[in-house]
Structure formats: structure tokens, C-alpha cells
Amino acid sequence: MAIEKYGQYGKNRLWEIIPGALDWSILIGTLALALASPAAAIILVIIFDIYWFLRVLYFVIHLLSAYHHYRLGLKTNFTAILKEQAHRDQIYHLIMLPTFKEEILIIRESLLAIIASKYNHSKLLVVIGGEELDRESFGEIQTALSQEFGSKFLKLIFTIHPANLPGEIPGKGSNLKFMGESMVPIINSLNIDQSKIIVSAFDVDTLIHPEYLAALTYNFLTVEKPLRSSYQPVTIFANNLWSAPAPVRIAAFGTTFWLFSEMVRPERMWSFSSHSMPWQMLLDVGFWEPDLVSEDSRIFMQAFLHYDGDYKVTPIFLPAAMDTVVGKNWWDSLKALYLQQRRWAWGVEHIPYMITEFKKHPKISWWHKSKYLFNHFEGMLSWACVPFIIFVLGYLPFLLVHGRTGNLFVNSPYTLEWLMRGSMIGILVTGVLSFAFIPPRPKSVKGWAWVTMFFQWLLLPITSVLFGALPALHAHTRLMFGKYLGFNVTPKKASSRE
């Protein structure tokens, strides 16, 4: 793909090269050390596994803490609490649902979930954004949904994002930008206070919790700086979980639990997937950047830079449920999962952006900048390298010294075995917690399928390599060589929820 077509890519080639170069340096260096000096490699592997065992314990502690907050959130009647807030009736919600070739049943279910929300519907503006490349089908959807839902909200608006606008790449970000800009004159005509509007940019298959809008409004009214925060629900890929292959389910839970562990450390958080934010912030930053893939997290960094570091993410411990990836068959689902993981790993594109833009904002403290850059950099490197080191390269030096005598060679396999057993606590905890997020079993699914929901976690070493590290390494390598990704739409099927 030509660089000139992809606006911001290719302008900072050195910083685009570094993440992928470090990935390969770590992996090749580990392999070379194992071949050149197995004893040194064994010591390094044991040290690394001790470090990773401590990381697992750290993760489990935060995961259990987040689950405790989640349970409290589910038990909280935010609608009742909100009634005590004097300014609740001043808050409006703009809900944006970008779509491309999705079935009408998918969009309809999302609208029904919004209607089921325990919030004043006269304060809701819903905009559904289609694409020029799908104009005919989207026109039919618009007609049907207008008839069914046109009177359910303050306004139900439909937009069609033109194709091939200059400076854009096709994708969710460019569509959202067009949707946002299209809403400016409409909101102005309603004479609504711009600072009292909360925008929720949802994937079109998002089913929000009935209390989400009330909880969102309550947080907006009670946080210290409501216009300096995005608001992140718990992302759960579970709508069609029963029809998904085991590797897809493991990846779905892995994403949820990763976000969970971040939500109790909001100082580390970026916005992700379906989330909410102030309309005023979008006006201030000029809406989403239309020439990149990872728009959901980039919009947070846009705000962070615009307000010189005075911007954060506020966690909301209520679920926003979405679909896992699906395909025509088992194999197509796995291919879709790989492409989805590769697209998420393309978030590595934020590293050259941060390095370049941080230089332009001297008011942001060095510590604040370093924290976000290090966390993102370390997360991307771990994503691409750690599963290979633990489950593949970590065993190589032990194979090379098989049969040798000496304390190191004799005792180290047992040390590694105990470290791996200790790390199993992470699999055990996530496996047990996963049952709290599984939707009711459809009648078409046999009862014994519950057993597979637990034993599927034995596949974690394989899936973490094939559908975690490998697509991440692929994404980072493409960026390293200037082979820029476009936005691949995750396939969604209403029938997969049955």
C-alpha cells in the first residue's frame, strides 16, 4: 500500500522500525544464546520465568480486585442514585453506531438494548453511520429502522460516509469523524449545551447493560473533571460465545481479563473498543483521525496531548457485550481471529506518534510521558515475544543439554517445572472467572458443552502463540517494513448468537 495514500504513516520511519526490530532482536538473540551457550540461556530462562511468575501473581490480584468492583457495579441501582443528582436532566447522550455491511438484525439488537436502558429516551440522540460502498443495502436498513425506531429517541439520524475522501483510509475512524462532523449542525440547531453531551462510540454489535447510561451519567456528574475524561465499560466478547471455536473463546476472555486488570489501574488506561467521551473534547481535538487503524485508543491520546496531559480514563464496571469473531466455518473463524488480533496489535502505530508528538508538548511532565510510552512499548513487546519465549524458545536450551551432569543441568528442569506450575494459577483463576461472563446456553447447544468451556484453557499455550504472539509479531514486522495495514472489518452474523 502506497505511503502517500496513508497520511500519517511513513513520516517517522525510524520509530516505525524500532518495535519490530526489537521483537526480532529479542527472539533471535534468545535462540542464538541457547545455541551458543545453553547454560547461560538456562539461567536467563529461569530468571525470566521467575519474573513472569511474579507478573502472573500481580495480574491475578488486579483481576480479582476488578471482578469485585464488577460485582458491586452489577448490584448498584444507578438509576435510583442518579435521581439524587440535581443536574441529571441537563445531560444528553449521543450514541454513534458506525456500520459496514452488517445485518439489520445486528443493528436492531443494539438499538433494542439502548431502548431497554433505564434512562430518559428523550435525552438520547442515536446516529447510525453507513458507508458509500454499501449505500444500497444501508438504504434498506435505514428505511426499516426509521419506521421501527424513529420515534423512540430525541433523534435517530443516519449518515453515509463518502468513499475516497482525501487524507482518509476506509475504516471505523474515518466513518466516526464524518458522523461527528455531520452532527455539529444538528446539535447546534437543538440549542443543547455542548459541555452537557456525552458521546458513546460503539461497535455496531454492542449490547449495553440497562444501567450503563445511568452509570455513565452519574460518573460524568461526580468525577472531578468530567470534560477531561473518557469512560470505559467492561468489554465482553460474549454475545455469540457458544457458537465460537475454543481458540476464539480463549482470545475473547483474554481481552476481557486484560482490560479488567487495567481498570483497577486507571492511571495506565487508554480507551478501547466501545467507550464514551465528552462531546466537547471531540470538538476540541477535531474528532477522530481518519488515516489510521487504531482509532479507539488514538482518540484518548489525542485528548491527552490536546489538554497537555490533563486527561484520563474513568472505568465503569458494567458490561458492554459484543460478538466474538465468526466465519462461515471453524477455519474461517480462526482466520478472522488472526486478522482481528493483528489489527489490535497494529496499536503499535501509537509509538512513533507518541514519540513525535510528545516533543511538541513541553507542559506534559517527562514522567507522565515516559509512563505512557513505556507501558505501551513494554505491552507491545511482551505481546509479540513472551509466549514464544515461554512456550517455544524457553525449552530449547534444556533439550540441547539433555544428558549432561552438573547441578544446573540436573536441577534446572525441576525449577522450571515448578515455576510453570505456579504460573498455572493464572489459567485457573481466569478459567473459573470466565464462567461469570458466559451467556445462557442456547437450546441448540448440548449440555456437555459446559465441560469444554473449562478444559478449553488447556489450549492457552497454543493459542497464546498462534493467535497472540504470531499476529502481533506480524503486525510489528509489517510496520517495520512499511507494509501498512488497512482496516479489516470483523465479520458479524446474527445467526451465530442463536
Structure explained in plain terms:
The protein is 55% helix and 11% strand. The chain has 498 residues and is α/β, with parallel strands linked by helices. The chain has one domain. The strands form 2 sheets. A 5-stranded mixed beta sheet has the order 3-2-1-4-7, sandwiched between helices. A 3-stranded mixed beta sheet has the order 5-8-6. Helix 5 links the parallel strand 2 and strand 3. Helix 2 packs parallel to helix 15. The protein is globular and about 80 Å long. The two termini are 39 Å apart.
Number of domains: 1
Order of helical and strand elements: HHHEHEHEHEEHEHEHHEHHHHHHH
Portion of residues within helices: 40-55%
What is the strand content?
5-15%
- Mean pLDDT figure: 90
Parts with pLDDT < 50 across at least 5 consecutive residues: 1-5
Number of helices, where a helix is a run of at least 4 consecutive DSSP H or I residues: 17
Total strands: 8
